[in-house]
Amino acid sequence: MPWKRRPFTSRRLRRALNIADLRDIARRRVPGFVFEYVESGAEDEATVTRNRAALEELRLVPQTLVDTSARHLGTTILGRPASAPLVIAPTGLNGLLHFEGDVVLARAAAQLGIPYTLSTVSTTRLEEVASRAGGRLWMQLYVVKERAIGREIMQRAAAAGYEALVFTTDANVFGNREWDQRGYRAPGKPTVRASLDALRHPRWMWEVLLRHGMPRFRNLEPFVPANLTPMGASTVIPRLFDATICWNDIGWIREHWQGKLLLKGVLSVADAERAAALGVDGIVVSNHGGRQLDHCVAGVEMLPEIKAAVGTRLAVLIDGGFRRGNDVVKALALGAEAVLLGRATLYGLIAGGAPGVERALGILTTEIDRVLGQLGCNSVAELAPRHLRPARAAASVPGI
Fold first, then answer.
1. What is the H or E stretch that residue 104 is in?
2. Which of 213, 232, 224 is nearest to 142 (CA)?
3. Which residue range(s) make up the domain with 298?
4. Residue 170 CB neighbours (<10 A)
């Protein structure tokens, strides 16, 4: 039939059946240089590709003739109930995608009953997100050269009621995101081609750049140049990052933060063991979505042995390449407490604002629920390594 297998071209959210469809809508709604900020990975993007491949190499093993009519997605994340095993990951510069990006994402998380993580380089003040969105809020922290920035962020987040601090450990040296750089001739100055492309997206220009004013790094305003905006910021922000961060900084953070503490960017058993010994509350097994070190291992490849080593001492979460409910189920079966979503929810944000994020979360939770039932499970707590096999006989995944 001629209508079969055509590329998805609709712009209607209700026609989006999966995250890939939302990505296609998003790609058409913003200029190319904006979409590349979200999409691009480091250098050859081998890590981005590996994140997906590692998940696809795992196959699910169902149990049949099991009554799954009572299934639910409820779980516990960092010791507190959550309605699904998901967390919205920290993503910066969201005001470049949607004028209220941070608030929209946080509200969607609160409505679903899952945590939301606000980035240090957000375009909305952390206090505003807390007052307008509510819910379970986590604060992501980059340690930069001016340590007063970190101290102030931690103090303000504590005062605003943020539950946890997510210390990103893998950005001491900023990744080389070449496709993100191609749209700029100088920091903050798009190329002629990129500027012409922006003119082809008048709705984005009106809502993001004109109607509400140029987005700013609201949590960093006292510390960065007044003219610094998210336009091309990836060529400027790296200069702020501190290459001296080390394990001793955990003690410094603990001096200023009394809440839950997670380390994001752990990819080895040795680092996980050290985090556990220092008494952190959790880790996020992560390669920064493939945006830092290229040709890096995927988080899901390292998850089983990390979970086996430290899983009884701290919470183990994961991110990197999750686009389907079955991806999430695979990570849970390998021992992850929850999965952090980055690009998946940003596609929804770009595609349709609040309804788009809700659509993305609805797609994923529906898929997780369906896969649970098809595996013969009534809850995510029943998932275990026995539900997985490597796709290829030569593949070897520790713990399976």
1. helix 101-112
2. 224
3. 13-177+238-390
4. 19
Kindly name the residue from 72, 288, 295, 387 that is annotated as catalytic. Answer: 288
Q: Residue 65: inside a domain, yes or no?
A: yes
Read off the DSSP letter of residue 144. B
Q: For 124, which DSSP code? A: S
Torsion of Cα atoms, 168 then 300 then 355 then 126, to 10°: -10
Instruction: Please name which of 16, 32, 59 lies closest in space to residue 388, comparing C-alpha atoms.
Output: 59
Instruction: Mark whether 387 is an active-site residue.
Output: no
Give the three-class secondary structure for 363.
helix
Residue with tokens 């291992």, as numbered in its chain:
297
Amino acid at 60: L
- For residue 83, what is the domain's CATH number? 3.20.20.70
First and final C-alpha spacing in the chain: 42
The answer as to whether 256 is a domain residue is yes
Q: Is the pLDDT of residue 394 over 50?
A: no
Length reported for the chain: 400
397 pLDDT band (50/70/90 cuts)?
A: low
**pLDDT of 1 higher than 80:** no
Torsion of CA 173, 175, 180, 184, to 10 degrees: 40
Residue 241 has pLDDT above 90, yes or no: no
pTM beyond 0.90: yes
Within-domain flag for 170: yes
| Cα gap 46→290, rounded to integer Å | 8
Helix (H, G, I), strand (E, B) or coil at 132: helix
| Torsion angle in degrees (nearest 10) through CA of 217, 244, 39, 122 | -20
Which amino acid is it at 244? Answer: T
- Total tally of structural domains belonging to the chain: 1
> What H or E segment, with its residue span, contains residue 284?
strand 282-285
Q: Which amino acid is at 386?
A: R
pLDDT digits (tens, 9 = 90+) for 119-144: 999 999 999 999 999 999 999 999 88
**Rounded distance between C-alpha atoms, residue 338 and residue 157, angstroms:** 23
Sort strands 260-266 and 189-190 into parallel, antiparallel or unpaired: unpaired
**7 occurs within a structural domain:** no
Q: What is the mean pLDDT of residues 336-349?
A: 98
For Cα atoms 86, 90, 92, give the angle at the middle one, nearest 5 degrees: 145
